[in-house]
Design a protein that fits this description.
The complex is a heterodimer.
Chain A lengths: L11 E7 L3 E8 L5 E7 L5 H16 L6 E8 L1 H7 L6 E6 L5 H4 L24 E4 L2 E2 L5 E3 L3 H15 L3 E5 L8 H13 L4 E4 H4 L5 H32 L4 E5 L5 E2 L1 H6 L7 H17 L4 E6 L4 E7 L2 E2 L1 E2 L2 E3 L11 E3 L3 E2 L1 E4 L5 E5 L5 E7 L18 H7 L16 H12 L3 H27 L7 E5 L3 H11 L4 E4 L6 H5 L6 E11 L7 H19 L8 E10 L6 E5 L5 H16 L8 E11 L21 E9 L4 E9 L8 E3 L2 E4 L4 E4 L4 E4 L5 E4 L6
Parallel strand pairs in A: 1-4, 4-11, 5-6, 5-9, 9-10, 13-23, 23-24, 30-32
Antiparallel strand pairs in A: 1-2, 2-3, 7-8, 11-12, 13-14, 14-15, 14-20, 16-19, 17-18, 21-22, 24-35, 25-28, 26-27, 26-28, 29-30, 31-34, 32-33, 34-35
Chain B lengths: L5 H25 L3 H6 L2 E7 L4 E4 L11 H11 L10 E4 L11 E10 L2 E11 L25 E5 L2 E2 L1 H10 L3 H28 L6 H20 L4 E10 L4 E11 L2 E5 L15 H15 L8 H4 L2 E4 L18 H4 L2 H8 L16 E8 L5 E8 L26 H8 L2 E8 L13 E7 L6 E5 L21 E4 L2 E2 L5 E4 L4 E5 L15
Helix pairs in contact in B: 1-5, 4-5, 7-10
The chains are: A alpha+beta, B alpha+beta.
Chain lengths: 698, 518
């Protein structure tokens, strides 16, 4: 137990990550690196209760007074779930006359041409709550017809009085060029209907392409009232506890925002949990001096991956929420928000194995989840899942499951081995290996898309199922080293503590490089930088403490996809062109061609000072004296093609500096690491397991 | 011969498809062609050493379903495998050898492991321009449509054929874009070759021929077992569609016999003096597409998956148009093969067929931007999708091919036209137990200050999308200039200030409507 120390009193921070099942908490002393962790069952009705109860429990256990906590960093799935479960506010929308149906017309595209029965997610604002007003700004910013404030007032009155809307989205054409009509409409609404929350499309993201911008705007409006209520409950509860530090909220881009920014842009909170996982991987990489990493997180339903280059997880401005058809890309609502670029595939412990239409083995994307769960949980599930296969292979121990009574072999035999005419061992191994292949393929594809060479990288693996698969996946990708961090069960909560307050945004503004006059680059960035730094300044961060990153989306004029180019202040158009050609050649291995180069989007990220977390953390004291080998198990050895007796180690009894040569299973509370024969494992000074893969197997 | 159990086969097969997918991704992202990047009008393939298709990229439009084995046959007839060397790239845009029109270029690259030929990769993309009159309805000979390249080598033993590139460059409007797309095809095949060799290394494979046997046999067997589930018999359908000044009849019969399917287009009219004639390869692709939708939609395309299906057409008919008939807009007739065959099978597999869709509206616009620059672009608009048993047709959604919306904001900045409105047209989808999808109305105003030429190629202007199983037809597509109807296949000059309104057709309904719905 750690006791509070007046000298370090100001240095405690807490990370709290609210997940679907558990609320994870991590308490860290930035000066000493001391850490305590705690898991609390999530309270679905009001998630703030679990946060507050969990915090009280953790602080009491660690002997830290709430007054000694300087910051609470919070991540939540509240917003994502509200969109998926359609629990947001009744939301109205005012649009440019003639364009009420943009949300229905959507992409005019089928995401699968062969499956005729595909379906799409409904917009969060139904047609009857979208009203048109006269106004028109042209693509070049000229006002073609002025906004009529009376129409704005009348339309809003109809939506409020006849439909009872709580939130309003203001979406006008070309507002990314000039936002004056949206701003004027907002003033009218704010003056006449002070109870409404209002979102304008130009402040959400001044991005050219009305459908995606408006989709993002309506989702933001839809979750605004609920986010506001949640944050208020949390703030009130923390105040009652005597918490006087700062509350920070995690966004999908991996940056923290203040509650004020979170209330204005709650859509940015979507998908923040997985982002925190990638951040902690980046942080660990920094600790061990590795900048290029693959972060691999596999839980019960999905596996997520992120690529980290030079210590920074890669970003993009595209996300899709609430996929309506078999998890397929294109079936959900598009969001243009800054997110950590994640691979997500339907592969987790609950993934169901079956025989597909080809007559071959398939695993996922359907999942038994936690309810009914894998067959071996004996909670009513009768599907053959990945967890069942791992248990059958000896990669998990039977006593790891409370139920444990039901044999996992049954469903694997009847649903996979029997129909395919293969042995039980072969079926179980097949399920395990198909998932490894699926994950490796997704990584490979994504890396090739962005020109990322992962072969020199280190993989950082976590999540309930990650450690059981990491080594095999790494081997397929020819990645030489895998790290299984300590505290894997609360990785996201720890990740929340590693990242500064920041705000990322972009603005569309197409211009040919050759048309950029003197100062053209600077003036293009200026409004974007002003918005981002302005928001941070309002959050109390001094301009001197901010760092600003500039990036440009560029392409050959006439192409439809862009390449991101990092640029510094004062860069010349010539140098910019050179960087673009280099980046282009690196990604596409294509001969650069003789075409004009253009800038498409201007991207900026402003960040406050980084938290003092760089010294790392020490969650567990080294266990000494106890024997780490706690038993052995009959496990499937893929090289031998038969079962062998493998030792089982207790992770908590391993000491820093200790080395182990595989095969072995390393058991911890939330996961089991599978070490293949010949792999070398070393425990580093922080307690992480560092595995160096054996040379290529036959 | 090596055999593969259902676990190994799954793993190796999926990896092969992923190689093809990787090629697709790289091509889409580097393409200048709007059809490629917005509509995935492209395809990539992997072949074994015996030139058998073993994997095709997951994303591509139906036009490429099963065409590749014929194309590679034509190419290897000119350059036999034993003459090929590691640095070769073979290409053609011949409509009859490739995919039906000059716009599509096909590139083939042999893959060598050491000195041994172990397979091939291939890419097909729709080029931004190939000279001639561009995409329009009113060409009367193939010579109007652009440059035709017989099977030739873009690269010979590592040496780029610069003369060939100069010839292409001299024949197209924006050479850097067309040449850029040719080079992007060459580059993606390099990537594909490396990926194939890496795959073979990973799994210790000396060749992929026995794997290809397994993949092809397996997909053939899967296809045959689904066809066997259908009752034996012959079913017919015939439809009329809009031709140049007169209707054209398309007719088909589908025969199911045990595990095989035979499609025969007997009764179909002859070719027409407009660029809407369809080379047979394209007809076969659309037929294979329908069979895939009706059986196993997610079965990866292989040579084996098309073996159970044979396709015939009367020699020289519009679905087997021969040289020198123009074929540039072959989709505007060829896409109708899909509703034609769906209609034939409506009583056989009632829960799998889809009622007629609105077909895509493709039109080209040429003129001058307000700022003085040239405007020359193809645009797409979708009508309503056909309904199915259990599913309303989605509004404003294309079929059978694909596209992506051109946002109003992009449209306006690219052309300086004003899009006055864009709205769903309620009630334009056919009635039915399940309703056809509604079309849309889009109004453009010429604010460029210069005349704008619109080349229209509209279908569903006389013959609506029909419903199935008692469902009603969708509304027709029509065009108005300043409120007066215009010929849906005309070239129209839109003067400054003029408006053109496009009313996109509705999709067909499915099933007899409930009384309150009728």
């Amino acid at each position: 137990m750690t006791t509070g120390n007046p000298d370090t009193g100001e240095r405690w921070r807490v990370g709290v990550d609210v997940g679907g099942t558990f609320t994870d908490l991590a308490l860290v002393n930035d000066a000493t690196g001391a850490m305590s962790i705690h898991k609390q069952l999530t309270t679905q009705q009001d998630p703030s209760r679990a946060v507050l109860t969990g915090l009280e429990t953790l602080l009491a256990r660690a002997g830290v007074a709430v007054g000694e906590v300087s910051a609470l960093a919070h991540g939540t799935t509240l917003v994502t779930n509200a969109v998926i479960e359609r629990r947001g506010a009744k939301t109205g929308m005012l649009v440019t006359r003639g364009f009420r149906d943009v949300l229905d017309i959507a992409m005019e595209r089928r995401f699968d041409l062969f499956d005729l029965s595909i379906t799409f997610a409904d917009p969060v604002v139904p047609r009857e709550l979208r009203l048109e007003v006269d106004e028109r700004i042209r693509y070049d910013g000229a006002v073609e017809s002025a906004l009529d404030p009376d129409q704005v007032e009348r339309a809003t009155r109809t939506l409020v009085e006849e439909h009872g809307i709580e939130a309003l989205a203001l979406c006008f054409l070309h507002s990314y060029v000039d936002d004056r009509h949206e701003a004027a409409a907002r003033e009218v609404v704010a003056a006449r209907f002070p109870g409404l929350t209002v979102t304008t499309s130009s402040e959400i993201l001044p991005f050219m392409r009305e459908y995606e911008r408006w989709s993002t705007t309506t989702v933001n409006a839809y979750v605004q009232p609920l986010t506001d209520r949640y944050l208020r409950r949390l703030e009130d509860g923390l105040a009652r506890m005597g918490f006087a530090g700062s509350l920070l909220i995690m966004t999908a881009s991996g940056g923290m925002v203040t509650p004020a920014i979170a209330r204005r842009f709650p859509v940015r909170l979507i998908e923040s949990g997985p982002a925190a996982g990638a951040l902690v991987a980046a942080f660990l990489g920094e600790q061990i001096g590795e900048g290029d990493l693959l972060s691999f997180d596999m839980g019960g339903t999905t596996a997520k991956g992120a690529l980290i280059r030079n210590g920074r997880p890669l970003r993009r401005y595209e996300f899709e929420v609430a996929r309506a058809y078999n998890y397929k890309a294109g079936s959900g609502l598009p969001l243009r928000i800054p997110v950590i670029d994640m691979i997500e595939i339907g592969a987790g412990g609950g993934s169901i194995a079956r025989v597909d239409d080809r007559g071959l083995l398939a695993v996922g994307p359907y999942s038994a989840g936690a309810d009914p769960g894998p067959a071996c949980y004996a909670t009513g599930g009768d599907s053959a899942t990945l967890t069942d296969a791992n248990l059958a292979l000896g990669y998990l121990e039977p006593d790891a499951f409370l139920g444990g009574r039901l044999n996992p072999d049954g469903p694997i035999e009847t649903r996979v081995a029997g129909p395919l005419g293969i042995s039980l061992d072969r079926a179980a191994w097949g399920i395990h290996e198909v998932i490894n292949e699926d994950v490796a393929r997704a990584f490979r594809m994504h890396a090739s898309e962005i020109g990322f060479d992962y072969r020199r990288c280190v993989m950082i693996a976590f999540g309930g199922s990650g450690p059981a698969h990491a080594v095999r996946v790494a081997r397929k990708l020819r990645i030489p080293r895998v790290i299984l961090p300590v505290g894997a069960g609360v990785m996201s909560a720890i990740g929340l503590l590693t990242t500064p307050v920041s705000y990322a945004t972009l603005r569309s503004g197409q211009i040919l490089l050759e048309d950029l006059g003197a100062g053209g680059i600077e003036s293009g960035f200026r409004p974007v930088i002003d918005q981002a730094t302005g928001l941070l300044a309002a959050a109390g961060i001094a301009l001197d403490d901010m760092s600003v990153e500039r990036r440009l989306d560029m392409r050959f004029h006439g192409q439809g996809h862009e390449v991101e180019v990092v640029c510094s202040a004062g860069i010349s158009p010539g140098e910019l062109g050179k960087r673009f050609l280099d980046a282009y050649a690196a990604i596409y291995a294509a001969t650069p061609i003789d075409a004009a180069i253009e800038i498409v989007n201007w991207k900026v990220e402003a960040s406050g000072p980084s938290p003092e977390f760089a010294r790392g953390y020490k969650p567990f004291p080294g266990a000494s004296g106890t024997d780490c080998e706690v038993g052995s198990i009959d496990a499937w050895d893929p090289q031998a093609g038969e079962r062998r007796r493998w030792p089982v180690l207790d992770r908590y009894a391993l000491e820093p500096g200790q080395t182990v040569v595989g095969p072995a299973l390393v058991r911890e509370d939330e996961a089991t690491t599978v070490l293949s024969p010949g792999d070398n494992m070393r425990v580093d000074s922080m307690g992480n397991l560092v595995i160096t893969l054996a040379e290529e197997e036959a | 011969m090596t055999t593969y159990d259902p676990v190994s086969l799954k793993i190796l097969w999926d990896r092969l498809v992923a190689i093809a997918d990787e090629l697709v991704l790289s091509l889409v992202r580097t393409s200048f062609s709007m059809n490629v990047r917005e509509g995935y009008d492209l395809s990539c393939m992997v072949f074994d050493a015996k030139a058998r298709l073993v994997a095709q990229g997951t994303y591509s439009v139906p036009s490429f379903t099963g065409t590749a084995p014929r194309t590679i046959g034509h190419m290897l007839a000119v350059y036999p495998p034993e003459t090929l060397r590691p640095g070769d790239i073979v290409m053609t845009n011949d409509p009859w050898m490739g995919t039906g029109h000059l716009f599509d270029v096909t590139m083939l690259r042999p893959v060598f492991r050491g000195s041994r030929l172990v397979g091939y990769t291939m890419s097909v993309t729709h080029l931004p321009d190939i000279g001639g009159r561009g995409m329009a309805s009113d060409c009367t000979e193939i010579y109007h449509e652009g440059l035709r390249l017989p099977v030739c080598k873009l690269r010979d033993d590592g040496v780029l054929n610069t003369l060939l590139l100069d010839v292409v460059g001299a024949n197209v409007r924006v050479p850097e874009q067309t040449i850029g797309d040719l080079m992007a095809n060459a580059a993606c095949n390099e990537v594909g070759g490396r990926a194939l060799l890496e795959f073979m290394d990973d799994y210790g494979l000396d060749d992929i021929d026995s794997l290809s046997d397994a993949v092809n046999d397996h997909s053939e067997a899967a296809m045959r077992s689904r066809i066997r589930d259908m009752p034996d018999g012959t079913w017919r359908n015939s439809i009329e569609i809009e031709g140049p000044g007169h209707p054209v009849t398309l007719a088909a019969s589908m025969t199911i016999e045990d595990t095989s399917a035979r499609v025969d287009f007997a009764g179909t009219d002859g070719p027409v003096r407009a660029s809407i004639n369809v080379p047979f390869c394209y007809t076969v692709a659309q037929s294979n597409y329908v069979m895939k939708c009706l059986t196993i939609p997610d079965l990866p395309n292989t040579m084996g998956s098309t073996r159970p299906v044979t396709v015939r057409a009367p020699e020289g008919c519009i679905l087997d148009a021969r040289h020198p008939w123009p074929t540039g807009g072959r989709h505007s007739v060829g896409h109708f093969v899909v509703p034609l065959l769906m209609g034939a099978m409506a009583d056989v597999v009632p829960e799998r067929v889809q009622s007629d869709g609105a077909m895509m509206n493709v039109f080209s616009v040429q003129g001058r931007h307000r700022d003085g620059g040239d405007v020359s672009s193809l645009f797409f608009l979708a009508g309503g999708l056909g309904a199915m048993h259990g599913l309303h047709g989605r509004d404003v959604t294309p079929a059978p091919s694909n596209m992506t919306v051109v946002p109003t904001e992009i449209w306006e900045s690219r052309t300086s036209m004003t899009v006055e409105s864009r709205e769903v047209l309620p009630g334009t989808g056919g009635v039915g137990r399940w309703r056809g999808g509604d079309g849309q109305k889009v109004v453009f105003r010429n604010d460029t200050g210069h005349p704008l030429e619109f080349a229209l190629m509209g279908q569903r202007t006389s013959f609506p999308a029909r419903g199935l199983a008692g469902g009603g037809s969708g509304a027709l597509r029509r065009y108005e200039v300043n409120g007066a109807p215009v010929d849906p296949k005309a070239r129209i000059m839109l003067e400054p200030g003029d408006r053109i309104s496009m009313y996109e057709a509705g999709g067909g309904g499915y099933g007899v409507p409930d009384s309150q719905d009728a």
